[in-house]
């Protein structure tokens, strides 16, 4: 369900930096991802969970920073993250109306693991991001529950699916089928190789905007749709951009929370290259975390490894932008067509453009 079969047709590789061996966010050591997908008629939704390490995230927190590029969203946990600069739960992605249920599930799980939370210890800060999948999914059904979070959490592994899976099941991107996308890049900094990985929940954009590796593919597809009586999309050049994208960036480079916030902001460069202008109704949020060290809960002093100097961050910024752009393309490339609420349908990129290889071929 995560990857359609297109023999010999590979997504274009963005930039000159090499990908990691998996080509996903799991190329960053310690990172795992799990999905729970609901695909039953009117219900086309799900949950995706990203774990920074296999240990207890409340006891061993990881440094993180976030950038709110456009704040049209209903996430939970960003205020404390911005203040303290650490993750203390796995990152969960779901639909807009599923945020509360997933946050409550995350709180209960943390309390079971550490009964002192909220009593002898501080409360836990669940981090949940969302996009609105209401075009394909009956979002009013409030179908996402605690058991779906646990399924995604417990199934997390380094085998990370992309496309119409997990939280991405009901998402639309550039009026096509969107969803989960993955990518990674390996870059040399100060004599060492580091990995930057990205996972996106892509649910934004209008078809005429779509740009893949610099090629304005969306214009061609929009013109076709405008002249076809059987057009599967409703896109026009004047329709406002609505939707959202959540961009999660992981790295094994030793950075502090301030530097990770700077890294997260570079996700906007990759997003812009695909054609987004961060429209009024689009919530665009990026978060970056590092697996290079952990911050122990309740410690009196914290010993940090040698951190990269700010003057050495440019290669990581480049890797972030390339990874996010690649991940958005991966979401489109991997998605399958989905029919959901009230017969609404989103065609996959491949079903919308059977001649995709020719359209993306560089002109002579």
UniProtKB/TrEMBL annotation:
Species lineage: Bacteria, Pseudomonadati, Pseudomonadota, Betaproteobacteria, Burkholderiales
Pfam families in alphabetical order: Peptidase_S58
CDD domains (alphabetical): DmpA
InterPro entries membership: ArgJ-like_dom_sf, Peptidase_S58_DmpA
Protein family: Belongs to the peptidase S58 family.
Top-level taxonomic group: Bacteria
Organism: Paraburkholderia ribeironis
Name used for this protein in its record: Peptidase S58 DmpA
GO molecular function: aminopeptidase activity
Alphabetized SUPFAM superfamilies for the sequence: DmpA/ArgJ-like
